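User: My advisor, Dr. K., asked me to get a structural model of this assembly before our group meeting. I'm new to this, so sorry if the format is off. These are the inputs:
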Amino acid sequence: MVVTTMAEELAGHRFFRSIPVDLRDRLAGCARNVVFAPGDRICVEGTHASGFFAIRTGRVNVGIYVPHQGLQVLETRHAGDVLGFSWLFPPYRWQIDAVAGEQVRAIELHADCLLPYLEEHPAGGYLLVRMFAQEMEETIQSTRLRLLDVYGRDRVHAR
Amino acid sequence: MSTLVEPRGPGASARGSMTPVPHRVVEVVHETRETVTLTLEPVSDVIVAPVAGQFTMLWAWGAGEVPISVSALAGDDRLVHTIRDVAGVTKTLCASRQGDVLGVRGPYGCGWGIDAARGHDLVIVAGGIGLAPLRPVVHAVLAERSAFGRVSLVVGARTEQELLFRAELDGWWHRRDIDVRTIVDRSSPGWSGSVGVVTGELVGLEIDPASTRAMVCGPEVMMRVVAQHLTDRGVAASAIEVSVERNMQCAVKTCGHCQVGPFFACTDGPVLPWDVVASLLTVREL
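Assistant: The format is fine. Below is the predicted structure of the whole assembly, which you can bring to the meeting.
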């Protein structure tokens, strides 16, 4: 059996692949492996956002619970994605609900451990915030594309 | 004008006659609320057999004519077309019944580079009705599966209800030799798949850039985003084919309606390599 360290696992994840080794090693100290069964709630809107998740395998449905209608899935996060931005900003409260769409293996990184370190090491903090900003930009762009309703507006393509 | 892209496929340079050849509707399958697959057989004269990616001009008597890609290769004289009702002529075509007679011209245009994909990994990305022109590619690849490396099919749709060829998709999904992923813009109760844009499903695909070829068909914005994603991951722009659709009216490079810069979508396309059309598709009003 091959045993890998948390730093090695982070290095194998798309999100952390390009960060400096010393920062990755530090992040590894704030991380642990977690597994969610299908249907497990990973984030609950309004509760304390204690960190974020780097998804290794599986699919996470992100949405908002609507009374009497259940979770309205707005997007799916996949292996290689990160889940959770709310840990970065006050009031550190989840803005979304997230449920495992299938068995999910992820690395959970804890804000209580990360934030003090990033405050004291602005270079690393800046880099990580930039990486999250890029994820946010991609999420916004994906939302824009769906707002465009390209399939519905595609009146040229009768085929 | 010289053609900058080498014609591909046996019918690539076919001009055909401008006279529609009568074909009878022998089967009507309602795929979704607004999409219908028609199987046609010749009343007497037969047209040249199309290849995957080509289109014919379908004529509904008294309504007009539209370009429609072949959505399956019957292997005989029959033609299979999947049509989305976007009003006008397509509404009439979608209302066709068994026994009705339609006119057919063609086939026209360049098909998908299936031969060039042999020996390579293949990523097929379809959005909305874009799955119809790519369906014959999937059929061809699965019929000769060992000739290709890893094969992935990513299908995007507005909603689950608008996914085309559901039974066939389910069949492909259960196979081990093709990685099928579906994603919808908007979820509905009971949908257990992914929600988002097609690139969301591409992120998780293992791609070996050096040996990957891609075929992409769907709304132009979608094709642009997918091609960008693939080139960002190292896939050569020349290894990505897209199906460029424009307002094709004559289909024989005469009327100019489907001109895209130096190309005519009807004869130089509709399938064109991304390195050739990438810069043209970002030119406004082109």
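One thing worth pointing out at the meeting: Residues 130 and 224 of chain B are 14 Å apart (CA to CA).

User: Perfect, thanks a lot.
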